[in-house]
Amino acid sequence: MSVRDFLSKRYTAALSAILRFKRQHKMTLLKILHHPDPRLRTKATPVETFDSGLTAFAQNMLETMYAAPGIGLAATQVNVHKRIIVVDVSEANDQPHTLINPVLETHGKKIKSEEGCLSVPEIYESVERFEYVNVTAQGVDGRPIEFTADGMLSICIQHECDHLEGKLFVDYLSSLKRGRISKKLRERVR
Ligand SMILES: [Zn+2]
Q1: Alpha carbon of 91 to ligand 1 centroid (Å)
Q2: Burial class for 136, CB neighbours closer than 10 Å (0-12, 13-18, 19+)
Q3: Cα of 142 from ligand 1 centre, angstroms
Q4: Could you tell me which of 23, 101, 103, 190 has the fewest CB atoms within 10 Å of its CB?
Q5: 190 residues of the chain, pLDDT tens digit each
Q6: How many angstroms does the Cα of residue 125 sit away from the middle of ligand 1?
Q7: Domains with residue ranges and CATH for the chain
Q8: Residues annotated catalytic, as ranges
């Protein structure tokens, strides 16, 4: 084999490795619905099939959330009406939670905190949530998950689970404030 053949083979191998990497890491960003889209009001149904399609979809949800950027996303927001949420409140984006069929038990007192939503862009308002939440859910492989969350993670999980019921954080605000927000969003679309 000539040097040229050798180099050309190495080059081809390197190129196909790069292409393979790009294929494996190809990001699929899902389209996020914006308030007041009526599809955001759909109540999600339970996930019954745990297959590679679910794993891929959950991965796409995480990538869409990180790219937005956001700290939580519910399947409802990308027009898939199944009980799936993803959250990651870590600064380094390295603590993702993918929760399938989540059920919440809220505890503690109610606390106020500023919330935003990828479906209600650039609007931040103070909302009351419970301090602690006990979560039972399933992983993408169907295995049971149970944990208790507090702080930002607790708030974020409560916010995302509301989406699965067709509920938005602006629903907690006064009708006057809600009206102002709808007007602002409609003007922005125009
Ligand atoms: Zn939201």
Answers
A1: 19
A2: middle
A3: 24
A4: 190
A5: 555 565 566 566 665 655 555 555 667 899 999 999 999 999 999 999 999 999 999 999 999 999 999 999 999 999 999 999 999 999 999 999 999 999 999 999 999 999 999 999 999 999 999 999 999 999 999 999 999 999 999 999 999 999 999 999 999 999 999 999 988 888 877 6
A6: 12
A7: 32-189 (3.90.45.10)
A8: 160
